Amino acid sequence: MSASRPHVISTLAELEALCGPVGEASIRKEVPTLHPHYQALIEASPFAVLGTVGPGGLDVSPRGDPPGFVEVQDERTLLLPERRGNNRIDSLRNIVADPRVALLFLIPGVGETLRVNGRATISVEPALLERFAMNGQLPKCVLVIAVETALFQCARAIVRSNLWQAVSPDAPRPVPTPGAILEALTQASIDGAAYDRELPQRQRATLY
After folding, report:
1. Fewer Cβ close by (within 10 Å): the C or N end of the chain?
2. Is residue 143 included in any domain, yes or no?
3. Does pTM surpass 0.70?
4. DSSP string of 59-78?
5. Where does the Pyridoxamine 5'-phosphate oxidase N-terminal domain lie (predicted)?
6. What is the DSSP letter of 8?
7. What percent of the chain has pLDDT over 90?
8. DSSP for 39-105?
9. pLDDT tens profile 106-159
10. Helices 192-205 & 178-185, crossing angle to 10 degrees?
11. Are residues 156 and 89 in the same domain?
12. Residues 148 and 57 in one domain
């Protein structure tokens, strides 16, 4: 720490002194391929967060489908379909520029998560798209991810957050609706109430 910034950690040595040594289990759980137990976590997961990096900076975005939507092709390769979305394609833009990706897999009711790092390519091979058709709709493309490292993350964050604690469907929404957010950000050029009213049907009609 410098005299001008006495409370800022700025070196690796300072960081390691702050956090302490890494336990053996935390080191040995990271492997360069998808162990069968790690494959089981991926096959049970209906939701993942995809992290990418590109010229404009970093991006993280959600991916979800029925459990196993990310297919384990082999111990070194994952296949992730790109479903219909808002066409921002932030993740895909980044992958075109920089193939490095990170995935975090979540499984409802399970505290442990799985972290996978690798490099992705964007494929539009017809046979591959057909493999991932849902409700008669093909994905836009499929990310073919060459796995570099995989490790499970302990359950502390899930336990602390009570993420899987049941929420009553009658519970009031604790945050602004999408319509309210858009109305505020656009100085009311978007009608928030109308947006929220039409959103459920629009989502059902454009899910795939």
Report:
1. N
2. yes
3. yes
4. EEEEEE-STT-SEEEETTEE
5. 35-154
6. -
7. 85
8. HHHHHH-SEEEEEEEETTEEEEEEEE-STT-SEEEETTEEEEEE----S--HHHHHHHH--EEEEEE
9. 999 999 999 999 999 999 999 999 999 999 999 999 999 999 999 999 999 999
10. 130
11. yes
12. yes
